[in-house]
Amino acid sequence: MSVCNENRINCKPDEVLAATAIPACGKFVNPSNLQAEQLVYDQAFNDLINNYGIPIDFYINTFNLSAADLLYGTDWGDTIGLSDDTSFGEFKGPLQMQMYVELSDDALQLSKFGFDPGDEFTGFLHISTFYTAASAYFNYSDVGQSIEPKSGDVISLQVLGCDRPNGRGRVMYQITERMEQDMSALNPILGHYVYRLRGKRFDYSFQSGLCSEPVNEQIYENSFSGILSTTLYDQVSSDSKTYPNPDDPYNIDTVSKTDVMDMDINDTDIYGSYY
What predicted TM-score, i.e. pTM, was given to this entire model? Predict the structure, then answer.
């Protein structure tokens, strides 16, 4: 369908109720009659984002629900035949693009009244621009996803960390809501031009394909199981962690029997036996 209205019907001035006399002269909110105007809005939104937006790094969450373990939620890498350079459950990126961003600045005010809004953001991405950039960067069909931002994707605002003191840098947010239809705010003359994204501050927990914000002071332990690893002199640390993988998956029943609930060394006369 042409983006311009080439076959315009002339409504004569003497036809006071033109839409009644000639229905084709009416229908002012019929999208098929407004494609040229919608193109103007689409280009205007894109221009505003490019001029007043900021560059972002966009990370795609490749988690695939159909390939995940339904009990534990684990997303194994080769169960549906991805290419060798694609791993399940990890983040792909960064994909660089422009986004208009609004950051929440009322957290301190609301906290006085018992509310905890956290650190939130609202962002606007141009639909066509995102589709073009994302489809060229990553094959969404490999993980059974549509080419659009979604809840769980991560956005890094690099420009907000350029001159932060004491080594602090970029801030990262995780998308919690995607909206492309809000008739009062996003869809002039019934067109769809931008995504409105809302999100919260990203809580890094060693997701594959991501790294934490600089000078991240959260307490974590990523090298040993059992007691925490330590650099103290003569302090005993546990053996290194092991993780399940497709070649050597955990069998929870075997682990429970041999390492957790070994009743051979316990007196279980009054309780019966475990196995």
Answer: 0.66
